[in-house]
Design brief:
The structure holds 2 protein chains of 2 kinds. Chain A contains 11 helices and 2 strands. Chain A is mainly alpha-helical. Chain A has 2 domains: 16-61; 82-311, MetI-like fold, CATH 1.10.3720. A two-stranded antiparallel ribbon of chain A has the order 1-2. In chain A, helix 1 (16-61) packs across helix 11 (276-301) and helix 10 packs antiparallel against helix 11. The two termini of chain A are 18 Å apart. Helices cover 47% and strands 12% of the residues of chain B. Chain B folds into 2 domains: 30-143 and 298-354, 3-Layer(aba) Sandwich (D-Maltodextrin-Binding Protein, domain 2); 146-297 and 373-410, Periplasmic binding protein-like II (D-Maltodextrin-Binding Protein, domain 2, 3-Layer(aba) Sandwich), CATH 3.40.190.10. In chain B, a hairpin with a 2-residue loop joins strand 4 (130-131) and strand 5. A 6-stranded mixed beta sheet of chain B has the order 2-1-3-11-6-12. A 4-stranded mixed beta sheet of chain B has the order 8-9-7-10, sandwiched between helices. In chain B, helix 9 (217-231) crosses helix 19 (395-410) and helix 18 runs antiparallel to helix 19. Classes of the chains: A mainly alpha, B alpha/beta. The interface between A and B is medium-sized, with 29 and 21 residues.
Chain lengths: 312, 417
């Protein structure tokens, strides 16, 4: 650190002009800061209204026994909702399923997304066409895509199912959910990774090539380290997203055969069971879990992760 | 730029105001929004007749809702909890009465209205619209399951469950179709089947005021019946995935010798497989306890008037028209809805379309509603998930699980899967 400090110079005599100039500068900075805050304020206020208030309200509700059928009979129960949820096998079962889908899904998306990004990055002819067509799955509404998958895997009418009925068994259902998730979000992954690839200097790759590095080595030793920040951003986004998986499961299995994700269970208790207390508790737990995942990403991958000190 | 945005806002505001203004119908005729069963075959006929009969007092506007009961309830609940004034007549599944009434979302019918709503109506459907001795709905359709069988395979209509099982066993040993079809997938229909068996044995799931589960040795016995059906090889291999369409298909493709299913079986089979339809026999549900008639679980739908309706009296009149004898007959002939009015059962046209009407009436005599409790949805979810798959039932242990989980649900501590 200290090696960076410029060589010490004798402090110049504080002359009047300099003092005024400094003062003006700091005034200017303050005014700029004020302007900045004011420009941010509307956005911050809207964020508070649409995000902070519901979050705070959900946390508040999670300490109550609250039923939408009896809105006037809320009763403070402290942490008892948390005890109920955290001791419930149903919660942990869906937690396990969600984790499984998240980990396998994100890993598959990373690999396929990287391949797709390389293809999109390296295509010479019809670049626009390749990129556009690769992004089609991401442009389709998830529920619509999920219905297509559901019909494709339905016994008798689906082109993928034939005589089997995979969506009526637990593990085949889970793999189909993962497939639908991966198919849908690989383009997103690829898009983020491609942005990273664009930052890799061609010269560096050519130099490595001159030094005799194979394509494989160039990828692992040059490209990957350089685009590590992009990889982590992509992975973090996808992990957080995948942990909240809902629409694909809702359409494909509706949570039958123990395929519910935590979001499905929270939905069932909130919307179907009208149990605001338990449902909010689950929502808060999902929120905490995603926060932990984000925190671990930043801690484990350190400087390269978004939010880490080196990311700027 | 700013000016353009402001005018944009102005346009939006104006159109919102215009929308609000026209929501009360053109020319000041109140609009009665009806939800539920508005896409039934032939319903437009009923709608047009009622709109004509209203003579400008009101206009009935049909509204589409999701086709499955769970999603329908979700939409109702969400909108009622938000005090939505846009719903007047609610077509309610018979299991929602207690929940909606307890939450204060639907109006109690009293005096003349109660009188009109129940006059000439079979008693069991009235019970499904009643909660804590107060009437909350206009009974509209009812339903009970029947025992269906292949006449060529089963010469004498069985009267007890044991006879059904024995006959199926014999057919199996003779290499003939033997399957007993039952809806045992993890859904509401499974609860219907279980409730029928349990009630036939004299059992219930919760007590009268739904404060305690009533799981006892009869529950264990009922679970035992399901367990043995699932494990003694007489059910379809896909028992745990069977909903009504699957049970129907087992009969249609000649696998099944018996099936427990709703009255639509006959008319649907005539279209799907006339050969099987000609061979299709029906009778009352078998006795699960010898000497005691089976107690079928009631299905059906009632019309309720939303608490937040701005025209409750007109809404009542509209609902009554949609349920008049003519509408009931048309509904039965076109959409297969079983009527609740006694006089429709006497109609020769109805009797011709429903040759099993006598069995339906006989079953209705002893039919039972599903557990009447504001927490029905939660309890139903618990029952269908605890009992799934049927082959994994361990009667005593499963009964104990049911007891604790239903108690948890009643105490608001339970978690729904």
């Amino acid at each position: 650190m200290s090696t960076q400090t410029p060589p010490a110079v004798a402090a110049p005599e504080p002359d009047e002009g300099l003092v005024i100039a400094r003062k003006r500068a700091s005034e200017g900075r303050r005014a700029e800061q004020r302007l900045g805050l004011m420009l941010c304020a509307p956005a911050v206020l809207v964020m508070l209204a649409v995000a902070a208030y519901p979050i705070a309200y959900a946390i508040y509700l999670s300490f109550f026994k609250a039923d939408l059928r009896k809105p006037d009979a809320n009763e403070f129960v402290g942490l008892s909702n948390y005890v109920t949820v955290l001791t419930s096998p149903i919660w942990w079962q869906s937690f396990g399923i969600t984790m499984f889908i998240t980990v396998i899904g994100a890993a598959a998306e990373l690999v396929l997304g990287m391949l797709l990004a390389l293809v999109m990055h390296r295509t010479l002819v019809g670049r626009g066409l390749v990129r556009t067509s690769a992004l089609v799955p991401y442009a389709i509404v998830t529920v619509v895509a999920a219905f297509s998958w559901r019909f494709a895997w339905t016994q008798g009418i689906g082109w993928l199912a034939g005589d089997s009925a995979p969506l009526t068994d637990r593990w085949p259902s889970i793999w189909i959910i993962i497939l639908a998730e991966v198919w849908k979000t690989v383009p997103f992954m690829a898009l983020l990774l491609m942005a990273g690839l664009a930052l890799v200097p061609e010269d560096l790759l050519k130099a490595a090539s001159m030094d005799g590095a194979s394509a494989w080595q160039r990828f692992w030793r040059v490209t990957v380290p350089l685009i590590k920040p992009s990889i982590l951003v992509a992975l973090l986004f996808r992990t957080l997203d995948a942990f909240r998986v809902f629409d694909n499961i809702f359409v494909l299995t509706g949570g039958s055969n123990d395929t519910s994700s935590v979001s499905m269970v929270a939905y069932n208790n909130l919307i179907r069971g009208l149990n605001l207390g338990i449902g909010s508790t689950m929502a808060v737990l999902i929120f905490i879990t995603t926060a932990i995942i984000a925190f671990l990403f930043v801690k484990l991958f350190g400087a390269a992760a978004p939010g880490g000190s080196g990311s700027r | 730029m700013r000016l353009r945005r402001l005018t944009g806002l102005g346009v939006v505001a104006a159109s919102v105001a215009a929308l609000a203004a026209c929501s009360d119908g053109d020319g000041g005729t109140p609009v009665i929004n009806v939800y539920g069963s508005t896409s039934d075959a032939g319903w437009t006929k009923i709608l047009d007749a009622c709109n004509a009969a209203a003579q400008g007092r009101y206009t009935i506007r049909p509204n589409l809702i999701p086709s499955d009961a769970d999603s329908q309830r979700e939409q109702f609940v969400r909108r009622l909890a938000a005090r939505d004034e846009g719903m007047d007549v609610l077509g309610m599944d018979v299991t929602w009465t207690a929940e909606f009434a307890e939450a204060g979302w639907i109006r109690e019918l009293t005096g003349e209205q109660a009188q009109a709503a129940t006059e000439g109506v079979l008693q069991q459907p009235i019970d499904t619209a009643t909660w804590k001795d107060k009437l909350y709905g206009i009974p509209r359709t009812t339903n009970v399951q029947l025992l269906w069988y292949r006449k060529s395979l089963v010469p004498d209509a069985p009267t007890t469950w044991q006879q059904v099982v024995d006959r199926a066993q014999q057919l199996k040993s003779e290499n003939k179709p033997y399957v007993i079809g039952l809806t045992a997938a993890q859904y509401e229909g499974y609860v219907v089947g279980f409730n029928t068996i349990l009630s036939s044995l004299g059992g219930t799931l919760v007590n009268e005021d739904s404060t305690k589960p009533t799981v006892d040795e009869r529950t264990v016995e009922a679970l035992g019946i399901l367990k043995s059906l699932a494990t003694d090889g007489l059910a379809s291999a896909s028992l745990s995935n069977s909903q009504e369409p699957e049970v129907f298909a087992q009969m249609q493709n000649g696998q099944a010798a018996f099936a427990i299913n709703w009255p639509y079986m006959l008319s649907a089979m005539r279209e799907a497989n006339p050969e099987v339809a000609d061979d299709l026999g029906w009778t009352k549900l078998p006795q699960f306890k010898e000497g005691e008639p089976a107690r079928a679980t009631l299905g059906g739908m009632n019309y309720a008037i939303s608490t937040y309706s701005t025209h409750p009296d007109l809404a009542f009149d509209a609902a009554m028209c949609l349920r008049n004898p003519e509408a009931e007959l048309n509904g039965a002939l076109d959409a297969g809805n079983v009527p609740v009015l006694e006089e429709v059962f006497d109609d020769p046209e109805f009797q011709e379309a429903y040759p099993m009407y006598e069995d339906i009436l006989a079953e209705l005599e002893t039919a039972v509603p599903r557990p009447k409790t504001p927490l029905y949805q939660n309890i139903s979810t618990i029952v269908s998930s605890t009992l799934s798959p049927p082959s994994q039932i361990d009667p005593q242990r499963t009964a104990d699980t049911l007891r604790t989980e239903i108690q948890d649900a009643i105490d608001g501590k339970g978690i729904l899967p």
